Amino acid sequence: MTENETEPETVQYTADVVAVTPSGHVLLIERGWPPFEGAWALPGGHVDAGEAPYVAAARELAEETGVHVPVGALHQIGVWDQVERDPRGRYVTFAYMAVVPDGTQATAGDDARTARWWPLDELPDELAFDHADIISAAVMSNS
């Protein structure tokens, strides 16, 4: 390696889902693990090797909340790739939105302590990572 070259950076890929209802609620999970243990976050997680991000998004939503949506119901709202967005290292997330029926039941599963529907105008004061920005982008794209 020459003096101008740098070590290749390891990048982790994740997928997050902004699941919203027509009445204006968003599904959040309480994280059961670091970083941000105990904080509220969007359902999501790592994209497995060979897995498409939208497939990972639907899988993670089901694993963490028990809410199942077909991959065709997911609409990509953006990619969040800011260098310092995750304290564990370089994480790039593909964010998707899905509209689910009012009254959809959510049950915490996988690594989530709790799964809960929150009114979009009464979100917790602090959300994990940059999830407040992702929710804002989803709301803007849906209006």
* Class inferred from helices and paired strands: alpha+beta
Query: What fraction of residues sit in β-strands?
Result: 25-35%
Q: Outline, from the CA principal axes?
A: globular
Which CATH architecture is right? Alpha-Beta Complex
CATH topology heading: Nucleoside Triphosphate Pyrophosphohydrolase
For the largest beta-sheet, the strand count, sense and barrel status come to: 4 strands, mixed
Task: Summarize the model shown.
17% of the residues lie in helices and 32% in strands.
Model description:
- The chain is of the alpha+beta class.
- The protein has one domain: Nucleoside Triphosphate Pyrophosphohydrolase (Alpha-Beta Complex).
- It has two helices and seven strands.
- The strands form two sheets. It has a four-stranded mixed β-sheet, sandwiched between helices. Strands 3-2-7 form a three-stranded antiparallel β-sheet, with no helix packed on it.
- It is globular and about 60 Å long.
- The termini are far apart.
- The mean pLDDT is 95.
Features:
143 residues, three-stranded antiparallel sheet, single chain, 17% helix, four-stranded mixed sheet, Nucleoside Triphosphate Pyrophosphohydrolase, alpha+beta
Secondary-structure map:
Layout: E1 11-20, E2 25-31, E3 40-41, E4 44-46, H1 53-65, E5 75-80, E6 90-99, E7 112-119, H2 131-142
Parallel strand pairs: 1-6
Antiparallel strand pairs: 1-4, 2-3, 2-7, 5-6
